[in-house]
Specification:
Number of helices: 53
Strand content: 5-15%
Largest sheet: 8 strands, antiparallel
Radius of gyration: 40 Å
CATH superfamily of one domain: Toll/interleukin-1 receptor homology (TIR) domain
Number of strands: 39
């Protein structure tokens, strides 16, 4: 380097010196610097990627102070070197380009450079990429650019600049107009967005290609466009309002283009002319506005003034284009606006034409839903939108309220609101709105807006597309829509939505004679109701659909119409029905009644809470917003959402609003509903900060109102056509509700009224009611048994009725509460404190509900999961075996025949009003707290727990390997509020009948006791799901059924939810059960992160939850049931069989991989003493499909197998024991006939619970069996033959029964009958288990026992009562405190039981340690037991009686 330095000193020819990527040390740099002091020719110096150090950099800086030749410098330096370089540049006047990328300059170095560059007038190119520059450095550069006018390009890519620094650099571009290029990519998308939002609209600057930062490029362009749109809206609004000062400022200060055009082709001058603003017109002309520009209607600003009737404007000099003095408006309207009288006449004529010539009107209706946290100010916001004065004493909303708004449409962006008055009819309202829309042309504007939405749809990705879906098509000759009447678009979005969301196309409705009515959106699990059978008039001709209303009547109605109250300057009128949904979490469970995709939603939050000093308060606010967006995605997928922040009187600073907006985007953008969130383009925010204390005087409220209007008007369901008879029927129903104060009618009453409106058939009436239900004008639930007979005229009445039993009883009182409390203090306490509703209380709380409607309305609530039928648990009196209830539940329900089963003594569990938690004082959990929030506080993830699994819920499968980190599971999860109570309702519908003591229930935690099994469910947000802890000897079968039940319950309410079964591994990791099961069945090692688990490790950790590989050689009972029909019964039954020491084979999910499923369960039947087919109407009904297609029905195969084996045994019952077949132990077939009461609540098969109830008798069920096909299922018979030949090595049965014969054979066998649906199911369950036990005992008859001698049933308490001798032995050996819980868990109450458990491997040193016993006591216990066994000489050969 020294030699080079000497050469540089004297060289006069070299002009460029590139020494990059060498190992030049500080000493070498210092030597080179000495040479450069004297060199006069080198103009470009590159020392990048060396090790100059601060010493070398300082030396070079000193050299360049004296060098006047170098114009471009590339150096590798740090902070001290940068400071020295900055000092040098104060004196150097030759360097024009400075490359300092890929260093560690940091903010301090940039601050030093910026101070120098304020005065340096030679550098034009500055590269500072990849230098760890933050906001301090970015602000310093921005401040420098206010003074420096020579720098043309600055590169600050790949730094740490946040949105604050990005905004500073963007904003300075307004003052600095000389900088041509700035590269800011690869900082962050948020920084790029902030830079674009701050950059002046008119400032054209090169920001590079962004090739390596596509997200940043998209954010920058989006912000840039948003800024332009915002400025345009501000300019157009100022022109509309005549704000001359604002218009001047926007043009002069913000450089707004004076002749820019909006989506309709209007310029600011068009807007000023339309709204009669002469001063603004003159200002725009002075600023050079182009008067010749035509809008989409072909009108110049002059024409617009003429069409609008503003004659004074047409006289302003310069407004009329000089080149076309004869130009006329292209509109069909004359040059001047018609007089008010002429305009009225034109509208009346149009109304008459529509009424007499057309059978459909524009619907002109939209739904607005307000949602959000309690006390966020939703109700006050509605008042503000209506222009009402602020009410500081506004009460909290109870459940939900609704009101109608009349909205006058001036343009798609300009509307006026007022609360609708009760006068007038829906027919006249829609007729007037349709006429005004056609007269003014706004109908085509609305159609264009809908088409724009669909254009976005076709350009984007469509989810769940229906094959029959069609976009709107227009007839170019008539201008009218030629589309068939459709279901409103399932995706609704404002034309100003900044991003394209996924949109579901509208589906084709079912057709009826009068109109193609939109199909009502079905709730999960509902089925479309077929046409009424037996109607005499279902084939009425088409022309019967037109109502008999004469032209004279129409003409009179039009003349009597109050035009003075409705006719204004608007182009049409529409009605908004606004629903204010209660914010308390108690009400969330019935919000699905009102959340549909055919609405626009306002998500309201308190900015004051969001910025609260209390961290938990802030967190809760965000959780509420997440919850509501999630709910809207589940129940109203695709609907547009506007986010509203209240308390702008407290949180008033723009900076605060910007920070909240950034947080909204960063926190909520991953929510699946966020694509539907409307951006506040005018103010550059993701929400509208409103001050309700100012009401309509708050400009933000005004902007919000217009955005709501334009968003709603762009929805297809607003402009879709509706049959005139529908309108007439609604008017008559509305008049009855208003004048006669009747909240509901019977369906038959409505049918009679409908005939007078032109609806001739019951099916047409039903289609009309479904359409009105869609708009919440009436409520009609024709899929709920009993509710199809009623039509609710007042949706508010339905809400009020439900909230009498579902509310916060401390916050919301009812006048009936005192009378209800007088019915019984215990009954009232059960409702308020434990969520148990006694039917007797409804006689008071629903005293105005007709007795015929009470049960259908309860069924409606049950279908939505609002309540379930509840049977209090019963305890067994061991002396008298007399059933009685636990006193904690008020009324004692008794055995069959008692009054406890009468309707007046029925009980219902209402999950939504259960306590928030079990073990915490309710006062610490406010009623407005979300269950997920409460669960986060009280139900943490505890890491590995034995006999525990989790069901995690998500919208997308998140599995990537056999394990998942807890944090990742939480991030990927999706937990709708109320999910736990939905699941709890389904589980309790079955588990309650096997309960042995009172359950402990809450909205986040539940514990049920089923014989010796303790079932615990817990909402655990940390893993995004529900914990299942099953404390029993062998919980594997319960886990299988419980997981299935929980998953199906969740999918029934939330069809998009996906579930994953997880096992806890440690405090950070969960394992997917399917992978554990896969490796267990294949006996393979399994990797968990970097740890390898052997098959034995898996068994040691998860053995009780995993199936025992292979089949046992003996079973007591084989339970045959159809999973979708009666799994709930089996889930409740199996703990009772286990308690009675029966080994029961439930299903074949314990088979090793490779084993034949069918052959295995048939083998298990043969190895069982008793086979119990569960016979129900739903099970039989499924077999009717064999009439049309042959397949192997597994349930039928099980029944054919047990009958064939039973016949074989009877034929060989006299054979010697040695000659008996080793694989056939079957002695008895005992059918169990069960009623519809045991039908799965969430069964989505062809027969629902109501349909099954007609077969709740032995004779009726037998008649159902007689309808089965009298054919042999060849597929099923073939499987049976394979079992006989391949497993038993016997000839196939000579003759196979038909499907009908097989089922009818069960009716001829002694059976357990449980067909009385009115009998208490807990008693039924106990009887079934006891009778099965008795049959099993009688079937032993000298056979090798599959279990120990069957003792009397143990007391049905929560624990196990130890035998006195056994307990004394434990105490003598000082083992009782160590062993008590473990022995109780496995049911070892005496020496005989313990011997069985030890012999079968259930109890041993390792097993005891797994159950929590320390190693020392475990070894001592086993040693003492073996000593006792030897001394007593009482070893026995027996198997453990545990449930498979």
């Amino acid at each position: 380097m020294r030699a080079l330095a000497v050469a540089v000193k004297d060289n006069t020819t070299v002009t460029r010196l590139d020494l990059s990527s060498n190992h030049i040390s500080p000493e070498g740099a210092a030597a080179l610097a000495q040479g450069l002091k004297h060199n006069k020719t080198i103009a470009r110096l590159n020392l990048h990627w060396n090790s100059l150090g601060d010493v070398g950099a300082v030396a070079l800086a000193d050299a360049l102070t004296h060098n006047t030749a170098v114009t471009t410098a590339c150096t590798s330096i740090g902070l001290e070197g940068t400071v020295a370089l900055a000092e040098m540049l104060k004196h150097n006047t030759t360097i024009t380009a400075l490359f300092l990328s890929d260093n560690s300059i940091g903010d301090e170095g940039v601050v030093a450079l910026s101070e120098m560059l304020k005065h340096n007038m030679t550098i034009t190119y500055l590269v500072l990429g990849n230098n760890s520059i933050g906001d301090l450095g970015a602000k310093a550069l921005a401040e420098m650019l206010k003074h420096n006018t020579t720098i043309m390009e600055i590169l600050v890519y790949t730094n740490s600049i946040s949105p604050v620094g990005g905004a500073a650099l963007g904003a300075v571009m307004d003052q600095n107009r000389t900088l041509k290029c700035i590269y800011i990519e690869k900082n962050s998308p948020a920084t790029a967005r902030a830079f674009g939002a701050a950059l002046p609209v008119d400032r054209n600057i090169d920001t590079g290609s962004w090739d390596d930062d596509p997200e940043g490029r998209a954010a920058y362009k989006e912000a840039r466009q948003g800024k332009k749109t915002q400025q345009q809206q501000m300019l157009f609004t100022a022109c509309e309002n005549g704000d001359v000062e604002a218009v001047a400022s926007l043009i002069d200060q913000d450089h707004a283009q004076v002749s820019q055009q909006d989506n309709q082709g209007d310029t600011p001058l068009h807007v000023a002319c339309r709204h009669n603003q002469p001063a603004t017109v003159k200002l725009l002309l002075d600023k050079g506005a182009d008067t010749a520009i035509k809008n989409s209607k072909g009108n110049t600003p002059y024409n617009t003034a003429a069409v609008s009737g503003h004659l004074a404007l047409t006289t302003i000099e310069g407004l009329k284009p000089a080149n076309d003095q004869q130009q006329q408006p292209s509109s069909t309207a004359p040059n001047t606006r018609p007089t008010e009288q002429a305009h009225r006449a034109a509208v009346q004529a149009r109304m008459m034409e529509i009424a007499t010539r057309f059978s459909k009107h524009m619907a002109g209706r939209a739904k607005i839903g307000l949602s959000g946290q309690g006390r966020a100010g939703k109700t006050t916001l509605v008042d503000s939108l209506l222009g009402k004065e602020f009410n500081s004493q506004q009460h909290s909303t109870l459940g939900a309220t609704s009101k109608d708004m009349s909205v006058t449409v001036h343009t798609m962006e300009v509307c006026d609101w007022k609360e609708s008055e009760e006068r007038g009819t829906e027919f006249m309202r829609s007729l007037y709105g349709t006429a005004m829309a056609q007269e003014s042309g706004v109908d085509k504007e609305m159609e264009k807006a809908v088409t724009t939405v669909h254009a976005k749809l076709s350009a984007g990705v469509v989810e769940d597309e229906e094959p029959a879906a069609r976009l709107v098509k227009n007839d170019s000759t008539t201008g009218r829509s030629t589309r068939p009447s459709q279901t409103p678009s399932s995706r609704t979005a404002s034309t100003t939505t900044p991003s394209t969301a996924s949109i579901s196309r509208p589906v084709s409705p079912r057709l009826v004679h009068v109109t193609a009515a939109p199909a009502v959106e079905r709730q999960p699990g509902q089925q479309a109701r077929s046409s009424d059978q037996g109607d005499d008039d279902t084939d009425a001709p088409d022309n019967a659909a037109t109502p008999s209303i004469s032209e004279e009547e129409v003409e009179k109605a039009i003349k009597d119409f109050d035009f003075d109250a409705t006719l204004g300057e608007g182009k049409t009128q529409v009605s908004f029905k606004i629903f204010d949904l209660g914010g308390q979490s108690t009400f969330y469970i019935f919000h699905p009644f009102f959340l549909t995709k055919y609405a626009v939603y306002l998500l309201v939050f308190s900015m004051e809470d969001l910025l609260h000093q209390d961290k938990s308060k802030r967190a809760e606010s965000w959780e509420f917003m997440e919850h509501w967006l999630s709910s809207l995605h589940l129940h109203a997928k695709g609907a547009p959402v506007l986010i509203i922040g209240t308390f702008a009187d407290v949180v008033s600073k723009r900076k605060q609003h910007e920070n909240i907006s950034r947080d909204i985007y960063s926190r909520l953008r991953h929510n699946p509903a966020f694509p539907g969130v409307i951006h506040n383009d005018k103010h550059g925010l993701w929400f509208w900060p409103v001050d309700n204390t100012k009401s309509i005087n708050d400009p933000m409220i005004q902007d919000l109102r217009q955005t709501i209007s334009s968003t709603a008007l762009a929805q297809e369901y607003v402009s879709q056509e509706v049959a005139v008879p529908y309108l007439h029927l609604y008017d008559k129903l509305n008049a009855i509700a208003r004048d006669e104060k009747r909240p509901l009618l019977t369906f038959d009453e409505v049918v009679k009224i409908a005939r007078s409106c032109g609806l001739r058939t019951r099916e047409e009436t039903r289609a009309c009611l479904q359409f009105l239900h869609l708009y919440s004008m009436v409520l009609y639930y024709d899929t709920v048994p009993g509710m199809e007979d009623f039509v609710i005229l007042s949706p508010q009445w339905a809400v009020d009725t439900m909230t009498r039993v579902i509310r916060n009883f401390d916050l919301h009182r009812d006048v009936r509460d005192g009378e209800a409390r007088a019915v019984g203090a215990q009954l009232w306490d059960d409702l308020v404190d434990r969520g148990i509703l006694h039917r007797r209380l409804l006689g008071v709380l629903w005293n105005d509900v007709h007795s015929n409607l009470v049960m259908p309305f309860l069924r409606l609530m049950m279908q939505y999961g609002l309540c379930i039928e509840y049977s209090p648990p019963k305890l067994v009196d061991s002396r008298r075996a007399l059933a009685r209830t636990n006193s904690g539940h008020g009324d004692n329900a008794t055995a069959k025949g008692s009054k406890g089963n009468s309707p007046g003594h029925q009980q219902y569990l209402v999950p939504a009003i259960l306590p928030m938690t079990i073990r915490h004082n309710s006062s610490t959990m406010a009623s407005v707290t979300l269950s997920t929030t409460a669960a986060q506080q009280v139900n943490p993830y505890l890491g590995y727990e034995k006999k525990t699994a989790f069901v995690a819920f998500s919208l997308k499968q998140f599995k990537q390997s056999a394990s998942v980190q807890v944090e990742h599971a939480k991030h990927a999860s999706f937990l709708p509020e109320g999910l736990f109570t939905v699941v709890l309702a389904h589980v309790m519908a079955h588990a309650q009948h096997g309960a042995s003591q009172e359950p402990k229930l809450s909205r986040t935690h539940a514990i049920c006791f089923m014989e010796s099994t303790k079932l615990e469910l817990q909402l655990v947000p940390a893993v995004g799901g529900i914990k299942m802890k099953i404390t029993s000897a062998q919980p594997r079968a319960m886990l299988h059924m419980l997981h299935t039940m929980i998953s199906e319950a969740a999918r029934e309410r939330y069809p998009e939810l996906k579930s994953s079964l997880l096992l806890p591994y440690d405090d950070k990791t969960l394992l997917f059960f399917e992978d554990v099961l896969h490796h267990h069945k294949r006996k393979q090692d399994m990797w968990v992160d970097e740890q390898l688990l052997s098959p034995d490790d898996l068994i040691a950790k998860y053995g009780p939850l995993l199936p025992v590989l292979g089949l046992q050689d003996k079973y007591d009972v084989f339970i045959s049931y159809r999973q979708r029909a009666n799994s709930g019964l089996v889930m409740a039954l199996h703990p009772r069989l286990e308690q009675r020491n029966l080994v029961a084979f439930l299903d074949a999910n314990n088979l090793e991989t490779g084993l034949n499923f069918k052959l295995s369960f048939m083998t298990a039947i043969g190895l069982s003493l008793v086979a119990c087919p569960i016979v129900s109407a739903a099970t039989i009904m499924q077999m009717r499909q064999l009439q049309h297609s042959d397949y192997c029905d597994n349930v039928l195969l099980e029944w054919m197998t047990m009958l064939a084996l039973h016949e074989f045994q009877r034929a060989h019952e006299k054979d010697d024991e040695k000659e008996q077949h080793a694989k056939i132990r079957l002695r008895r077939v005992v059918p169990v006939f069960v009623s519809s009461a045991w039908h799965n609540a969430n069964d989505s098969s062809s027969m629902n619970k109501g349909g099954a109830s007609q077969y709740d008798s032995f004779d009726n069920m037998k008649r159902l069996a007689m309808t089965l096909p009298n054919v042999v299922s060849k597929e099923t018979a073939t499987a049976l033959d394979q079992y006989f030949t391949q497993v038993l090595h016997l000839p196939s049965p000579q003759q196979h029964r038909s499907v009908r014969e097989t089922v009818l054979s069960l009716f001829d066998i002694d059976a357990v009958i449980a067909l009385d649906a009115t009998v208490d199911r807990t008693s039924q369950l106990r009887d079934i288990a006891e009778k099965v036990r008795q049959v099993a005992v009688s079937a032993i008859k000298g056979q090798p026992l599959a279990s120990a001698p069957h003792p009397e049933p143990m007391q049905e308490q929560g624990g196990v009562e130890f035998d006195e001798e056994f307990k004394a032995w434990l105490s003598t050996n000082k083992l009782l405190p160590h062993m008590h819980d473990a022995l109780e868990e496995v049911g070892a109450a005496n020496f005989a039981m313990l011997e069985v458990l030890v012999d079968t491997g259930v109890v041993g040193v390792n097993k005891l340690q797994e159950m929590g016993v320390r190693a020392g006591p475990a070894h001592l216990f086993m040693q003492r037991f073996q000593e006792h066994r030897a001394a007593a000489n009482a070893a026995k050969q027996s198997c453990c009686c545990l449930l498979m």
